[in-house]
Design goal:
- By secondary structure, the chain is mainly α.
- Helices cover 54% and strands 0% of the residues.
Length: 168
């Protein structure tokens, strides 16, 4: 997936670049993973790769609501923080996850290009964590949250015996 960022407010540039890199690594983490591997749990209390991937799709879609019109949150009941892993046969396919990821990403990057200093320094939505209380701080936290879960996806991929997300 090629993700283009034409221009963003300079204070947002590092965060936008992080979203772009996370997008690339997300696709890489799912590349060549079978359905059986996707639903395999590394431990009894661990989430499978499918859940982590779905959680990221859901969170990126939710983030759109901080940048403009909200979008319907996909699979809200199965990928939310604190959700209990249920019957994995009812979870979406890689193709379904990747389709929502791509469309949410395209929309996110378009919205990032239209944000100015005034919006970035405005208070963040209450539901989006931030240290400094600003939208820029919240976007920074969201990028960190994604990076954390991309690391989980990379670990699970290696645990499954697949190559690293950093190998081409």
């Amino acid at each position: 997936m090629s993700v283009e960022l034409l221009s963003v407010e300079p204070s947002l540039a590092p965060v936008a670049q992080q979203f772009r890199e996370t997008t690339r690594l997300y696709a890489r983490a799912l590349d060549g993973v079978t359905r059986d591997a996707l639903v395999t749990r590394p431990g009894a209390q661990s989430n499978p790769l499918l859940w982590v991937a779905g959680h990221l799709v859901q969170q990126r879609t939710r983030l759109l609501g901080a940048l403009g019109p909200a979008r319907q949150i996909p699979w809200d009941e199965i990928f939310g923080t604190g959700s209990i892993i249920g019957d994995l046969r009812v979870y979406p396919s890689i193709g379904e996850l990747e389709a929502v990821w791509r469309s949410s990403t395209d929309e996110l990057l378009r919205r990032l290009q239209n944000i100015g200093v005034a919006e970035l320094t405005a208070p963040s939505p209450e539901w989006l964590r931030t240290q400094d209380g600003t939208l820029l701080g919240a976007l920074s936290f969201a990028a960190l949250h994604e990076a954390y879960h991309i690391g989980q996806m990379g670990f699970i991929r290696k645990w499954l015996g697949l190559d690293s997300i950093f190998e081409a």
